[in-house]
């Protein structure tokens, strides 16, 4: 997908890339900005997201959800067209607790896409300081997750059907 088409899609659809995920809606997740292979999301501080009432720190599961969704959006933005994806693996290293009362932001970068798998790195942080992470992540995502036929085989089948259709048209 070229940059102009990508920018237009993100501007027009806003949070459509995550609004179909009930948990993302429940925690108030929002796409802040995006570009090819990169996504910046945030979740505002809210009392119902607190994991430790004594400290007011947001639960680690919220950060996991934020990084997973940011990574998924980055994968979508790295693909030539929208496709169903699924998280295969997501490793998160927690560096420090989130600060009570502050919005948590995340940046994810899809740095490699193969025929069937995409690879992503992410960082959760406060303010604009990615260099002082709350948590970092690495993940892998399966592409074309809703297909019963593997992507490579589906592409070969599509070519074969197209060739067959073209042959019929010549007859």
TrEMBL record:
<dbReference type="GO" id="GO:0061522">
    <property type="term" value="F:1,4-dihydroxy-2-naphthoyl-CoA thioesterase activity"/>
</dbReference>
<keyword id="KW-0378">Hydrolase</keyword>
<dbReference type="InterPro" id="IPR003736">
    <property type="entry name" value="PAAI_dom"/>
</dbReference>
<dbReference type="InterPro" id="IPR006683">
    <property type="entry name" value="Thioestr_dom"/>
</dbReference>
<feature type="domain" description="Thioesterase">
    <location>
        <begin position="56"/>
        <end position="130"/>
    </location>
</feature>
<dbReference type="Pfam" id="PF03061">
    <property type="entry name" value="4HBT"/>
</dbReference>
<dbReference type="GO" id="GO:0005829">
    <property type="term" value="C:cytosol"/>
</dbReference>
<protein>
    <submittedName>
        <fullName>Thioesterase superfamily protein</fullName>
    </submittedName>
</protein>
<dbReference type="InterPro" id="IPR029069">
    <property type="entry name" value="HotDog_dom_sf"/>
</dbReference>
């Amino acid at each position: 997908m070229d940059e102009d088409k990508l920018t237009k899609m993100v501007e027009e659809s806003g949070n459509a890339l995550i609004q179909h995920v009930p948990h993302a809606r429940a925690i108030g997740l929002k796409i802040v900005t995006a570009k090819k292979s990169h996504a910046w999301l945030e979740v505002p501080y809210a009392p119902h997201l607190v994991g430790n009432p004594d400290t007011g720190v947001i639960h680690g599961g919220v950060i996991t959800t934020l990084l997973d969704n940011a990574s998924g959006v980055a994968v979508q933005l790295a693909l030539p067209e929208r496709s169903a994806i699924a998280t295969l693996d997501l490793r998160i290293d927690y560096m420090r607790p989130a600060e009570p009362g502050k919005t948590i932001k995340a940046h994810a970068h899809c740095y490699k896409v193969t025929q069937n798998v995409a690879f992503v790195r992410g960082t959760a942080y406060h303010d604009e300081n990615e260099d002082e992470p709350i948590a970092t992540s690495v993940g892998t995502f399966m592409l074309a997750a809703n297909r019963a036929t593997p992507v490579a085989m589906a592409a070969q089948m599509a070519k074969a059907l197209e060739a067959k259709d073209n042959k019929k048209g010549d007859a």
